[in-house]
Design brief:
About 25% of the residues lie in helices and about 30% in strands. The chain is an alpha/beta fold and about 70 residues long. It has a three-stranded parallel sheet.
Length: about 70
Amino acid sequence: MYSLDGIIDSVSVVHPLAPLLALLKPNGKLVMVGLPKKPLESPMFSLCTGRKMIASSSIEWLKETQ
């Protein structure tokens, strides 16, 4: 717990973010590069109390990258 500075999440299905945020140190960053079709829930309490951030990268759809 609290051991990583950053995580790159490439999972493109709905999944819980809280377990990933629990691994981040204060000021840690979770970068999303997978895009699920349904919205993900943001665990706001974990973000605010741990001074953590969720960011995303510009991604292309699979059809465009092939």
